[in-house]
Amino acid sequence: MRIVRFTTGEDPQYGVLAGDLDEYGQPEPDAVVVALAGDPLYVGVRLLEQQHRLADVRLLAPVLPRSKVVAIGRNYAAHAAELGSDVPAEPLMFLKPNTSVIGPDDAIAYPRQTQDLHYEGELAVVIGRICRDVPVEQATDVIHGYTIANDVTARDLQRSDGQWTRAKGFDTFCPLGPWIETDLDPQHFVDGVRLQTHLNGDVVQDASTADMIFDVPTLIAHVSSVMTLLPGDVLLTGTPEGVGPMQVGDEVEVSIAGLGTLTNHVKAR
Ligand code: MG
After folding, report:
1. From ligand 1's centre to the CA of 237, what distance in Å?
2. How far is the CA of 130 from the centre of ligand 1 (A)?
3. Helix, strand, or coil here: 102?
4. What is the pLDDT averaged over residues 136-152?
5. Spatial separation of the C-alpha atoms in residues 112 and 13, rounded to whole Å
6. If we measure between CA atoms, which residue out of 69, 74, 124, 108 comes closest to residue 241?
7. How far is the C-alpha of 209 from the C-alpha of 174, rounded, in Å?
8. Ion ligand 1: protein residues whose beta carbon lies under 5 Å
9. Helices marked H in the chain
10. Average of pLDDT values for 122-149?
């Protein structure tokens, strides 16, 4: 099932995106959103009679992280190498504030404090229930679904600050979407799913999730051994090689096979 959050100009609602995806992973032009009664994370999937054409709604970030976005650094060896870093012996965690989240087609605001704003296309995991100390073999039980993230990073501030709160934490630095796919197993991403990032139409990242150093269950076990995860918390699983700068006016698209494409543009803050 594909869970969306959307607006028709009124208050945001949740819905289910019906229909098939085309060969590029985009919804068919006549795709329909069936509205839901409340947030399916808390009340389950309760379909309403109300339907909208996808073309008639604006999609929003499909989840508002309840307490945090937990992100993983250097989880692809080739990306660690391109930054001149070693591969960590255990997952390297950091936090992005939930105020950094924006939705599909929202603008990434280029802060005046940086001169080196980078995209980082990533697979995102949405947590479905409160959990702590989750064993690897039970990690699937706490996953609500998967979506796409762009872990926007002020690379110069990441280097100069020594820790990453400012470099990763500006408003608009966590685009999420376009929907949450709830029907996939973590093994699907271990087997390998293609992740691509396009900048103004050019391919800049092209990798397989099979190249993650620590897989999704291992990350959930590791993170939940440190902090309680709440329903609606989001885990970013790291970016592959090919990170690079964005400029004001650029369009950045992150695509993951089966999860669609997350598109945003960059504007001056
Ligand atoms: Mg990242």
Report:
1. 7
2. 24
3. strand
4. 98
5. 34
6. 74
7. 19
8. 120, 151, 239
9. 40-43, 77-82, 155-161, 165-169, 186-191, 216-224
10. 98
- Closest by Cα among 116, 257, 107, 246 to 175: 107
Distance 223 CA to ligand 1 centre (A): 15
Cβ proximity of 230 and 127 under 8 Å: yes
**Length of the chain in terms of residues written:** 269
Token duo for residue 42: 């808390």
d(CA 167, CA 48): 42
Q: Determine the 3-state secondary structure of 228 from DSSP.
A: coil
pLDDT at 26: 84
Pairing of strands 13-18, 69-73: unpaired
- Determine the distance separating the centroid of ligand 1 and the alpha carbon of 170, expressed in angstroms: 14
pLDDT in tens, 22-54: 877 788 878 999 999 999 999 999 999 999 999
Give the span between the Cα atoms of 3 and 62, in whole angstroms. Answer: 7
Q: Average pLDDT of the chain?
A: 96
- pLDDT for the residue numbered 86: 86
For ligand 1, the distance from its centroid to the CA atom of residue 68, given in whole angstroms, is: 15
Beta bridge partners, 260, equal: 256
Give me the domains of the chain, ranges plus CATH numbers.
2-60 (2.30.30), 69-268 (3.90.850.10)
Among residues 135, 115, 153, which one has the least CA distance to residue 224?
A: 135
The answer to whether 258 and 25 are in contact (CB under 8 A) is yes
Interior angle at CA 100, CA 97 and CA 103, nearest 5: 135
Alpha-carbon span 233 to 216, nearest angstrom: 14
The phi and psi torsions of 267 (rounded to 5 degrees) equal -125, 165
